[in-house]
Design goal:
Elements lengths: L23 E3 L8 H11 L3 E3 L3 E2 L8 H8 L7 E6 L3 H11 L6 E6 L4 H4 L11 H14 L3 E9 L6 H10 L4 E8 L11 H9 L4 E4 L5 H11 L3 E4 L1 H5 L3 H9 L9 H14 L7 H16 L7 H8 L3 H12 L33
Parallel strand pairs: 1-2, 1-9, 2-4, 3-4, 4-5, 5-6, 6-7, 7-8, 8-9
Helix pairs in contact: 3-5, 5-6, 8-10, 11-12, 11-14, 12-13
Bound molecules: flavin mononucleotide (FMN).
């Protein structure tokens, strides 16, 4: 049988964190960045840190099996931080104790999820309206977290009126790492990120700051880090489009020549993604929407006209989808064409229009 292990590799890069280089992290993405996807990225060139999808903490919560697997079967060679989302310090303390014996590098508090069903319960991005509650939660997490305590946040809920207060709270509790998505909760994923907030956080905080939001290429990562003084870059959707982005960052930061994937490499990546998204033995009618969700991002770098993006959305079966991928990524002289280093700006991914997935942080 043709398995991932028996096929040619996706241009693996030997594991190496280069001392003095800005680190990179994979942004957590619910229903995408599970164990298999993390492992796939590690083959293409792992980021320096991983953060799990969020663990929703409430009165009867227990760590779910997929997140536990990410942590306990981490074969990426990189540290993994467990993300939690919740509003009640008592339950958060219990969750921190539940996580403590596991092989995690630390705990991350989600202060950014913009999904209305989440923020209406005053969790995730909703907590950005309640500095006093965040103060209490961070006090508990600091007491319970001997390892890294990190916070992943946006710069505000509606606006930046609480931003300085949150920076003070974060500093007061000796948080070890902050990842800042440079948008408000209300912005969702729209509009340009405002990186000036990352500059402000990097200046105000004693801990390192990871810049996050639309860092679509290694050149952009270098530009944003230079402009903001951030310690490193956290990358989410662009890593789904281009799984070699962390390797490219490392090469670019070191002044080496940067790996340039071809459309044939992308075709191979699509096959691997099919396997990654198949882990629960899904039927085609559930599997295809899941693949299309990811292909929405990949298609942004295939052709400038968006022909692959449009045609991909119309496919209904595995053979239609894979034949289209062969046609657009391998045949007609396409195999040797270079995959665009950044998304074509005028094309729009609509991953949530692809099927009845559960509502996520998106
Ligand atoms: C589908 C999806 C799911 C996400 N799930 C999470 C999550 O579980 N926890 C979290 O902190 N952020 C989550 N995010 C936000 C990302 O981590 C990241 O902050 C955001 O996508 C901006 O970065 P990017 O432009 O590099 O994608 C999610 C984003 C997407 C698109």
């Amino acid at each position: 049988m043709d398995t991932a292990a028996s096929r040619p590799s996706l241009h693996p890069l030997p594991d190496r964190i280069i001392p003095g280089q800005p680190p990179t992290a994979l942004a957590p993405m619910q229903d995408i960045t599970g164990h298999s996807f993390m492992h796939l990225l590690a083959i293409c060139g792992a980021p320096d840190y991983y953060i799990t999808e969020y663990y929703r903490v409430h009165d009867s919560s227990r760590l779910d099996v997929d997140i536990r697997r990410c942590i306990c079967e981490n074969t990426t060679g990189r540290p993994i931080i467990a993300q939690i989302i919740g509003e009640d310090p008592v339950h958060i303390r219990r969750a921190a104790r539940e996580l403590a014996p596991l092989p995690i590098a630390g705990i991350d508090l989600n202060l950014g999820c913009p999904a209305p069903k989440v923020f209406r319960k005053n969790v995730g991005g909703g907590l950005l309206r309640d500095p006093a509650r965040v103060n209490e939660i961070l006090a508990v997490l600091r007491e319970e977290s001997p390892g890294t305590l990190s916070v992943k946040m946006r710069y505000g809920f509606e606006d930046d009126s609480n931003f300085d207060t949150f920076l003070e709270i974060i500093d007061r509790h000796n948080v070890d790492l902050v990842s800042l998505h440079a948008r408000t909760v209300r912005q969702l994923y729209r509009g340009q990120p405002d990186y000036s907030y990352i500059t402000r956080a990097a200046k105000a905080l004693r801990c390192p700051v990871l810049a996050n939001g639309d860092i679509g290429s290694c050149e952009k990562a270098a530009r944003v880090l230079k402009e903001t003084g951030a310690f490193g870059a956290m990358i989410g959707r662009p890593a789904v489009r281009n799984p070699w982005i962390f390797r490219q960052c490392r090469e670019h930061f070191a002044g080496l020549s940067v790996f340039k994937p071809t459309l044939a490499d992308v075709r191979e990546y699509v096959d691997r993604l099919w396997e990654v998204t198949d882990e629960k033995g899904l039927s085609d009618d559930k599997h295809i929407p899941r693949m299309k969700k990811l292909l929405n991002f990949i298609a942004l770098g295939v052709d400038e006209e968006g022909a692959f993006l449009r045609a991909m959305r119309l496919t209904q079966t595995k053979s239609e989808l894979m034949n289209l991928c062969d046609e657009c990524l391998l045949e007609n002289g396409n195999a040797d064409k270079l995959f665009a280093p950044d998304a074509h700006a005028h094309l729009i991914a609509r991953p949530n229009h692809e099927g009845p997935e559960k509502q996520t942080c998106e």
